[in-house]
Amino acid sequence: MLRMTQNDGELDSLVRKRIRALRVAQGWSLEELASRARLSQSTLSRIENGQRRLALDSLVTLARALDTTLDQLVETASDDVVVSPMIDAAHGLMRWPVKGDPGMSVVRQRMTEPPPDNPARMRAHPGREWLVVLSGTAILMLGHRRFRVETNQAAEFPTMLPHAIGAEGGPCEILGIFDRDARRGHQRPEAGADADAGAGDSGGDGSRA
User: Fold this and answer.
1) Which of 11, 6, 178 has the alpha carbon at shortest distance from 102?
2) How far is CA 65 from CA 12, 39, 42, 55, in A?
């Protein structure tokens, strides 16, 4: 039998819920997953419902059938939960690290100023950025192009293109995701200069620039 090392009851319940959630995500019935894992349907049902003890051999076959690993099936990952952002009130920034990929970060930013008119103030650096406008309207300057990005529209672009972003017609809020290179590129300039791409990038209509 599988030996639980933390809170046995909680981990046991988590594993059962994970098996069912993975099955449902694949759109499989109990019968289909049971067939793939070479278990009886009643055995799988009892595993999911907590009426049968979790046997190591059953978990190995279920993990394989669900296209995952035993380690992923039984991991708790409770230490990886991110609840509170790091807040930079001076620049209107909230930042969350992405635990699963330390090179990624998520930033929420409120902007009130339009993007700079001077091309010399546009940034360029390795990486990719993605953003969605949460409220208001953002203007993305990308090379010689100008994109208007409305609420709920998103965009992604390579940051080797000179870029800057700002608000149009009032404040706007954006949520941006930066890969490792893009994040580093925005940490180098002095804080506060062109908070533009700070939250990201954007090519209207969800188009990729």
Assistant:
1) 178
2) 19, 11, 17, 15
